[in-house]
Amino acid sequence: MLKRWLAVPALMMTFGGVALGADCPALLEGQLPKLRAKESIDLCQRFAGKPLVIVNTASFCGFAPQFKGLEALYQRYKGAGLEVIGVPSDDFKQEAKTEEETAKVCYVNYGVTFTMTDPQKVRGKEAVHLFQVLAQQTGAPKWNFYKYVVDRQGKVIANFSSLTKPDDPDLIKAVEQALASKP
């Protein structure tokens, strides 16, 4: 009898995991290593059901000062549930050569507190899954600091070029639309 009672919680955990997996949008499947940390970010566990701004970054790009604007955007809306995910990439040949240097640019030079990953591929067949799905939904980033606003269901509701600053009224409108979306 005791064995049967022990099996029930194990069975519930198994099916519970399946249910959680089914609720995860394709965009958030998988993990990415966190910048200058030994941990990986389970994208589904950390971001499912949350409105997102996802941006590919580069430390030595002329648009790098947008880190300040992205941080301000994050601070303005994080209390409402917004998450910002920065994904450094050398796809356009403007990323630092080491993670330490990337981290210094993000954390020290610009005071970034939103989630940053280790440098990743964001274009083409070798792009990480997150950017493959973004490309399927709207298109691959055309340059560094390309911004995607994603609703709570994991669907891109707007994307913006590198020229669009984080405080642009159209980007703010998209963020507020993502915040208003139903989980």
Describe the structure.
- It is a single chain.
- The strands form 2 sheets. A 5-stranded mixed sheet has the order 5-4-3-6-7, covered by helices on one side. It has a two-stranded antiparallel sheet with strand order 1-2.
- Residues 1-21 have low confidence and may be disordered.
- It has a single domain, classed as Glutaredoxin (3-Layer(aba) Sandwich).
- It has helices at residues 2-22, 43-47, 66-77, 99-109, 129-137, 169-180, and strands spanning 31-33, 40-42, 52-57, 83-88, 115-116, 147-150, 156-160.
- Strand 4 (83-88), helix 4 and strand 5 (115-116) form a beta-alpha-beta unit.
- The protein is α/β, with parallel strands linked by helices.
- One of its GO terms (molecular function) is peroxidase activity.
- Keywords: Oxidoreductase, Peroxidase, Signal.
- It holds the Pfam family GSHPx.
Largest sheet: 5 strands, mixed
Counted by DSSP, the helix tally is 6
Name the assembly state.
single chain
**Gross morphology:** globular
| Gyration radius from CA atoms, angstroms | 18 Å
Question: Any idea what the CATH architecture is?
Answer: 3-Layer(aba) Sandwich
The proportion of residues forming helix, as a percent range, comes to 25-40%
Terminal Cα span: 41 Å
Structural class: alpha/beta
Trace the largest sheet across and list its strands: 5-4-3-6-7
Mean pLDDT: 90
* CATH H-level superfamily: Glutaredoxin
